[in-house]
């Protein structure tokens, strides 16, 4: 089994992977937005060239919808989002952006590629249709791998790592209990903007909690990647709790919720955000009218619910406001099932009363596997 496991190349993880959409560094934020919509993927890659060798191109970073939402709601752009969309895409790339994306050969060992992930890479670019040199870019020849792909690979070979799979996340030291990203449900959603941006960088999420630190939901970058830019309007004016409810509808909010959100925006003089919503979609409104308080109440949709580990409802799909949770005694394999089933890079750890204990991050789980692999098979 060990020999078979060691023989896997990175290309084995790329089977069925779509080509990664790419953009030149000269593209605008609006063009990046359009590319994300068209590709249906979570990320697009941005490519640039060396000024001394313009024929040589390299990846300058990756972008997703969360980058754009945070940018549109930044202090300098929130009053004029339409103008912000015309800026060059380079404004979305941090100084560390290029280091988060690594190009690797498809024949690399999985274990060697995993080391790049553990060193901080968010995405690995792997050539899938060309034997051109990695630093040369040709549209459609790269696919991308994330920590989730590696976690799925290790999960499919979980018997190799017995008995740690049955150990609890607490026993394995996987529960991060300090420096948790959290916001109170009544706080303005906009106050969570730095936390959302950080959660994206750390591949985690922002917990939404009560005053006594009970977990009632989350604002997850993985959910926001499936939204459109109109969600920036909700982020600009709603509370964290109401924003949770709004993104539950993602790209199809009810007419009443749209009316309520527009009413709030107009009260705050944020007319360009209203225009942004109109550009994205043209909802058909009912002819009936309701009071402002009734409209704003529509956004509060319903009480928050959390999923317990292994529950029937958790296997039947996930609403954005419902955080994926486990308990301190949950096994490593059970937590992996939760994360992989819902395609998130983390699982919240709670007590029976949903008091927030901490978070388990997929990247930390991968490190456990890597350490165990080195110990069992003497691979450095």
From TrEMBL:
<dbReference type="InterPro" id="IPR050511">
    <property type="entry name" value="AMPK_gamma/SDS23_families"/>
</dbReference>
<keyword id="KW-0677">Repeat</keyword>
<dbReference type="GO" id="GO:0005634">
    <property type="term" value="C:nucleus"/>
</dbReference>
<feature type="domain" description="CBS">
    <location>
        <begin position="316"/>
        <end position="375"/>
    </location>
</feature>
<dbReference type="InterPro" id="IPR046342">
    <property type="entry name" value="CBS_dom_sf"/>
</dbReference>
<protein>
    <recommendedName>
        <fullName>CBS domain-containing protein</fullName>
    </recommendedName>
</protein>
<dbReference type="GO" id="GO:0005737">
    <property type="term" value="C:cytoplasm"/>
</dbReference>
<dbReference type="InterPro" id="IPR000644">
    <property type="entry name" value="CBS_dom"/>
</dbReference>
<dbReference type="Pfam" id="PF00571">
    <property type="entry name" value="CBS"/>
</dbReference>
<keyword id="KW-0129">CBS domain</keyword>
């Amino acid at each position: 089994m060990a020999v078979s496991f060691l023989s896997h190349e990175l290309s084995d993880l790329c089977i069925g992977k779509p080509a990664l959409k790419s953009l030149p560094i000269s593209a605008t934020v609006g063009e990046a937005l359009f590319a994300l919509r068209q590709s249906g993927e979570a990320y697009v890659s941005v490519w640039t060239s060396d000024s001394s060798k313009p024929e040589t191109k390299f990846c300058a970073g990756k972008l997703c919808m969360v980058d754009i939402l945070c940018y549109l709601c930044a202090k300098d752009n929130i009053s004029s989002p339409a103008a912000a969309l015309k800026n060059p895409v380079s404004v979305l790339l941090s100084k560390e952006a290029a280091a988060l994306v690594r190009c690797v050969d498809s024949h690399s060992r999985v274990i060697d590629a995993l080391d790049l992930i553990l060193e901080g890479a968010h995405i690995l670019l792997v050539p899938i249709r060309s034997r051109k040199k990695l630093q040369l870019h040709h549209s459609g020849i790269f696919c991308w791998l994330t920590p989730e792909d590696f976690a799925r690979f290790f999960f499919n070979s979980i018997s190799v790592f017995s008995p740690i799979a049955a150990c609890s996340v607490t026993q394995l030291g996987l529960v991060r209990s300090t420096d948790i990203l959290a916001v109170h449900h009544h706080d303005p959603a906009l106050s969570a903007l730095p936390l959302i941006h950080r959660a994206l960088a750390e591949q985690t999420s922002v917990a939404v909690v009560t005053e006594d630190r009970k977990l009632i939901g989350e604002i997850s970058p993985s959910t926001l990647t499936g939204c459109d830019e109109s969600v920036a309007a909700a982020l600009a004016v709603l509370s964290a709790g109401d924003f949770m409810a709004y993104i539950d509808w993602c790209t199809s909010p009810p007419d009443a919720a749209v009316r309520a959100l527009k009413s709030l925006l107009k009260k705050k003089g944020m007319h360009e955000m209203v225009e942004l919503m109109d550009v994205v979609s043209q909802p058909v409104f009912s002819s009936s009218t309701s009071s402002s308080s009734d409209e704003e109440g529509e956004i509060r949709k319903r009480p928050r619910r959390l999923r317990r580990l292994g529950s029937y409802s958790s296997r039947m799909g996930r609403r954005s406001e419902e955080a994926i949770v486990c308990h301190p005694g949950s096994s490593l394999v059970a937590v992996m099932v939760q994360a992989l089933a819902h395609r998130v890079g983390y699982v919240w750890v709670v007590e029976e009363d949903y008091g927030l204990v901490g978070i388990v991050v997929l990247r930390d789980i991968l490190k456990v596997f890597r350490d165990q692999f080195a110990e069992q098979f003497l691979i450095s």
